[in-house]
Amino acid sequence: xxxxxxxxxxxxxxxxxxxxxxxxxxxxxxxxxRGNIGAFSTAPAAQAASTAARPKPDARGVxxxxxxxxxxxxRGDSVADVANRVGLPPAELARxxxxxxxxKLRPDEVLALPRRVAEPAGTVxxxxxxxxxxxxxxxxxxxxxxxxxxxxxxxxxxxxEPVRHKVAxxxxxxxISRLYQVPVKSLAEWNGLGSDFAVREGQYLLIPxxxxxxxxATAAAVTAPGAGSPTPTPPSATAPLPDEKVAVEAPEKPRxxxxxxxxxxxxxxxxxxxxxxxxxxxxxKNDGIDIAGTAGAPIVAADAGTVAAITADADKVPIIIxxxxxxxxxxxxxxxxxxxxxxxxxxxxxxIARLRGGDKAYIHFEVRDGFDSLxxxxxxx
Length: 381
Prior knowledge:
The protein contains 8 helices and 16 strands. By secondary structure, it is of the alpha+beta class. The strands form 4 sheets. Strands 6, 7, 9, 10, 11, 13, 15 and 16 form an 8-stranded antiparallel β-sheet that branches. A hairpin with a 2-residue loop joins strand 15 and strand 16.
């Protein structure tokens, strides 16, 4: 009878999940990684952002910009239906968007066009058609006709051209909205995403255009043509003021104490230890990164938060778990000489432990959204 021995990574993952359950005792964790739909906070800037409405497409569903065009689907459309409507081969349009010609689309879903299609032709010349019909009719009572001006040709969209983002592997609507600091709801409305905000690798997304504040008008003096600007009365022409002796005491200069900044970079998190990354993140295989350093080097909190749990793995090696805002949790495994306690509030960059000695002088660092592991590098860069 053979027994299967769990790998260190699997054991660490199980321990981390158990620790996360402990950390959730005073505040429920989020199983769907987003919080309640509609209440997920990607970033304060994205929450406060205000975006404009997406431009309306033409009769074929095409939105034209100077650099590219996109097509907007209708209810019941497949990729082939959109391709036939805009005049492109279905296979070419499907391949460019990473789909099949028979794939069904949601209403208002956006497809990027691989090449520019012609703008809609002008409307039918009613006067010419009516004149031909009259010429072909029997010659009875003369009919007077008045030529009608053709309808104006639709022009491409004007205003700010939105950024067109191609979804890479591992990206979600939430990471993309956080990247461009726009609300995820606006991103979904602009691109016809479903209620789960799902995106696929290779999909093109239009990034909503942020509303710009209107310029403030300044009042200006208006003069008649040919007349110069009015000249202000010089101070010497006014009546002199009476002599007054006013004792003015120089105000005491305020003492300003500037605290040392806690953030030395623009990254959302700081490196937990100074060293070299010896193992990178791999979903399901290595749920974090391993950073080697000098034995005894300080391990610091990647961001401000609260010590949610202090435990150990199957080999009794300590693990520290910190809870941060936005449902984020950071995990520090393979540490020594812990300097914090459960429930402590820590600052970004505060020393929480030390690196172990010998060939164990490395830390396993994870970033998690609820129970789901995330690649730590986007948070550290």
